[in-house]
Automatic annotation (TrEMBL):
<dbReference type="InterPro" id="IPR051344">
    <property type="entry name" value="Vgb"/>
</dbReference>
<feature type="signal peptide">
    <location>
        <begin position="1"/>
        <end position="20"/>
    </location>
</feature>
<keyword id="KW-0732">Signal</keyword>
<dbReference type="InterPro" id="IPR015943">
    <property type="entry name" value="WD40/YVTN_repeat-like_dom_sf"/>
</dbReference>
<protein>
    <recommendedName>
        <fullName>Lyase</fullName>
    </recommendedName>
</protein>
<dbReference type="Pfam" id="PF24684">
    <property type="entry name" value="Vgb_lyase"/>
</dbReference>
Length: 324
C-alpha cells in the first residue's frame, strides 16, 4: 500500500503534459545477467545493439526484433566501460585493466591492445574517426588517447589541468571534443595539442557532450543542473537550467538529426528523459524512465529509428522512440 501511495505521489508531481503527451515512448528490456550494470550501447545495425556489462566483465549483443541477448565473456577484471563497433568487430574499453579489446563476433576471440606507460590507464569513452581509428579518454590517468587501429600504436596526450578527469568524448569531423569532469573545462585536440575552453561558472562539472551540425558544442553540468552551449569560434557560452534545477544531476546526453538535445536527469528518481529545442530554447516536459533507471550514464542516438538507446543501473537496456 505504501509503495502504491509513493508511486501515485510521484506521478501526480509530474506535469500533466508529461503524462498525457510524452515526447518519447520508452521501452526497456531486462538484461539476463543480474546486477551487471549494462551500459554504453552502440547501434551496430538496424536490428543489432552492442553493450557492455561493467560489473560482470562481458560485452553483449541485443536483437530488438526478438529480444535475444548474446554474451561474450571478457578477461576477468576488464571492467568494460564502453564499446564501439565496426566491420572488424567490437572494440571495448578495458577500464580496469589498461587495454582496448577487439572482439571477433564470429568466435569470441579477443585481441588486446595494451596501453603504454605506468600509473592509471583507465580507458573510458571511445569514438571512431572516419578512418576507423579511435580517440578515447583516460579519466583517472588524466590523458586523452589515440589508437591507430591498423598498427596498434597509441599516442597519449597529457592533460595540463591536474586531476581534470577527462570524461565524455565525441568526434566531430574527425576532431575530438572532450569534457573534463573535475574541472570547468571543455577541450579539443588540434595540430597535436590540446586546446582548452574555460566555462564561466567555476562550479561547473561537465560530464557528457554532443556536437551539433552547426559546430556548437553542448555539454551537461552534473554539479548544478545546466545544459550549456559553447561556440568554439567565439568562445561564447550560454546555459539553461534543466527542469529539476540543481537536483537534476544530468548525466547521459545526446543530440538528434533535428538538432535537438536530449539529457537524462539522474538526481531524481525515477530518472527522467528531457529534450531541449534549441530554436525555442525550451525544455520538453520530463518523461520518467519506467524502471527508475538508478543512473543512466550514457546514451546514443540512432537516426534510422529516430530513437535513443541507453543502459541503466536497474539492469535494463532501453530505447526511447522520439516524438519530436
Amino acid at each position: 500500500m505504501t509503495t502504491i501511495r509513493v508511486l501515485l505521489i510521484s506521478l501526480l508531481s509530474l506535469p500533466l503534459t508529461a503524462l498525457a503527451n510524452p515526447v518519447a515512448d520508452i521501452q526497456e528490456w531486462t538484461v539476463p545477467w543480474p546486477d551487471s550494470r549494462p551500459r554504453d550501447p552502440y547501434v551496430a545495425g538496424p536490428d543489432l545493439i552492442w553493450f557492455v556489462g561493467q560489473k560482470a566483465d562481458y560485452a553483449a549483443t541485443f536483437v530488438p526484433s526478438d529480444a535475444e541477448f548474446k554474451r561474450y565473456d571478457l578477461p576477468e577484471g576488464a571492467g568494460p566501460h564502453n564499446v564501439i563497433v565496426d566491420k572488424r568487430g567490437a572494440w571495448y574499453a578495458g577500464n580496469r585493466d589498461g587495454h582496448v579489446g577487439l572482439i571477433n563476433p564470429q568466435n569470441g576471440d579477443i585481441r588486446r591492445f595494451e596501453l603504454p606507460g605506468k600509473g592509471r590507464r583507465d580507458v573510458h569513452t571511445q569514438a571512431f574517426t572516419s578512418q576507423g581509428d579511435i580517440w578515447f579518454t583516460v579519466q583517472q590517468g588524466n590523458k586523452v588517447g589515440f589508437l591507430e587501429t591498423d598498427s596498434g600504436e597509441f599516442t597519449l596526450y597529457s592533460v595540463e589541468t591536474e586531476a581534470a578527469r577527462p570524461y565524455g568524448l565525441v568526434v566531430h569531423q574527425d576532431q575530438p571534443w572532450i569534457v573534463y569532469f573535475a574541472s570547468n573545462e571543455v577541450a579539443t585536440l588540434k595540430d597535436g595539442k590540446l586546446k582548452v575552453f574555460t566555462l564561466p561558472r567555476k562550479n561547473t562539472l561537465p560530464r557528457r557532450l554532443a556536437v551539433t551540425e552547426d559546430g556548437n558544442v553542448w555539454y551537461v553540468d552534473y554539479a548544478e543542473g545546466y545544459l550549456g552551449r559553447l561556440n568554439p569560434d567565439s568562445g561564447e557560452v550560454k546555459e539553461w537550467q534543466a527542469p529539476a534545477k540543481a537536483q537534476a544531476r544530468p548525466y547521459a546526453m545526446s543530440s538528434d538529426k533535428k538538432g535537438w538535445l536530449w539529457l537524462v536527469e539522474t538526481g531524481v528518481q525515477p530518472n527522467r528523459l528531457v529534450g531541449f529545442n534549441p530554436t525555442t530554447e525550451s525544455f520538453t516536459d520530463p518523461v520518467p524512465i519506467p524502471s527508475g533507471g538508478g543512473t543512466v550514464r550514457h546514451m546514443v542516438y540512432d537516426p534510422g529509428s529516430h530513437s535513443l538507446w541507453f543502459g541503466t543501473d536497474a539492469n535494463t537496456l532501453g530505447q526511447a522512440r522520439l516524438q519530436n
